[in-house]
Amino acid sequence: MDQANPFESPRTYSLHRAEYLVALAVTTGLLIAHIGEVRWIPAVALFLYIDLIGYIPGAIAFRRSGGRPISKTYYVLYNVMHSLITQGAVAALWCLVAGPEWALLVLPFHLFGDRGLFGNFLKSFALPFEPVAQPGYLRLLDDLGLAHPKPVGHAADPVPVGHIPAAARARTAGTPSTAQREAAR
Description:
Helices cover 60% and strands 0% of the residues. The longest helix has 24 residues, at 10-33. It contains nine helices and no strands. By secondary structure, it is mainly alpha-helical.
């Protein structure tokens, strides 16, 4: 919401995603305009390698973990591979070695699609690898008088799992919820 409170409300999150949708539209337009000049085998390989290295191993580990925290290595892999900085460096290196080409547009196309279409931004060590609404965020929305967003990929909000240190759970176990504090007044 601001530099001191880096949460996003559902509205600002939607606006943030909309900016990436515009960038996705631009890269899509450029790919279509130059469709005959794109070497498709390198384009497909460049598009896929981001998730083959950065997402799929972490997703598999998360599903196998049964709700237990997974190694931070998977988060680092995801964040490095889904960074515009990393993919800009890959594109620059590609241009030095093989020369510039339209296939490189799939790198920002992939990242803009992830962020704009799916809302996938970089992953925080403090949260589960796959998105699950956290009680603190839901309390923030309650405090702001905002409706809870639709759960991502779930029929209802699942119980948050993973990456909540035991000390933090012990400290917050006795903390009353917003509704309990309001009822006590």
